[in-house]
Amino acid sequence: MLIEVEVVYAAVDRQLLLSVSVPTGTTVRAALLASGIGLAFPELDLAECPVGIFGKALNDSDSRPVQPGDRIEIYRPLLADPKEVRRLRAAKAAEAKARNQ
């Protein structure tokens, strides 16, 4: 029996959403490889890239089976640590406030 899942990836300059039919019991990683998204983004290492389902990162994509309607998302590495960015922004705002008083 086949089930439908979606595979999505957003590069800096473009994004792609693919629907793929896979047999029941297919793992997340196998569905990702079967989608053919690697042809559109050859720079991706599909065997190792971080993935998630509906915004929740998976640690076990090689063993977790997909469910009908799953949206498999391929994640890019962060360019900056969000906590560090917030800390710098807060420090800059505090400095500006101190100068204005």
From TrEMBL:
It comes from the Bacteria. Pfam families: Ub-RnfH. Transmembrane segments: none annotated. InterPro entries: Mopterin_synth/thiamin_S_b, RnfH, RnfH_sf. Belongs to the UPF0125 (RnfH) family. This is UPF0125 protein SAMN04490195_0151. It comes from Pseudomonas moorei.
